[in-house]
Specification:
Layout: H1 3-10, H2 16-25, H3 42-49, E1 53-60, E2 64-71, E3 81-88, E4 94-99, H4 112-136
Length: 139
């Protein structure tokens, strides 16, 4: 299995529940819950569906997986946002997130670009894990 495949298998705990927890239930710097329902809108899911993410890379560590990718903005065509997230392997919790946009300054940014990457990653993991027996077995 390649490094990327190992990272995806390690992220089995990353589900929609962790995405909702990060954007709504996570405690921000001021010790208040984020309550960022805005980042979970259908339009941000559509960014994932339309393929705004490029060059998604996963690096597996001891207890975390680092995700890096490029995200194309919805309107502007003159830039690409760099996104980085760190996800705990055991809990699936997003521990760190940052984006190159104005709203996406880390360490726990909750912009629409990060939300759309979360949708993309969750979908990819779910589809990949369905295929793991076929990929790892020999005929």
């Amino acid at each position: 299995m390649s490094e990327g495949q190992k990272a995806i298998v390690a992220l089995q705990a990353f589900t929609m529940a962790q995405i909702i927890n990060y954007f709504i239930e996570a405690v921000a710097i001021d010790n208040e819950k984020s309550k960022d329902f805005k980042s979970l809108r259908e339009s941000f899911y559509q960014m994932f569906k339309k393929g705004h993410h490029q060059n998604i890379m996963l690096k597996s560590g001891y207890e975390t997986v680092i995700t890096k990718c490029d995200c194309l903005p919805e309107m502007r065509k003159d830039r690409v946002y760099k996104i980085m997230m760190r996800i705990n392997v055991k809990s699936g919790e997003i521990q760190f997130g940052k984006c190159g946009c104005v709203v996406g300054k880390g360490p726990r940014a909750s912009c629409k670009h990060i939300a759309s990457v979360c949708y993309s990653l969750e979908n990819f993991i779910r589809v990949f894990l369905d295929d793991v027996p076929r990929i790892t077995s020999r005929v």
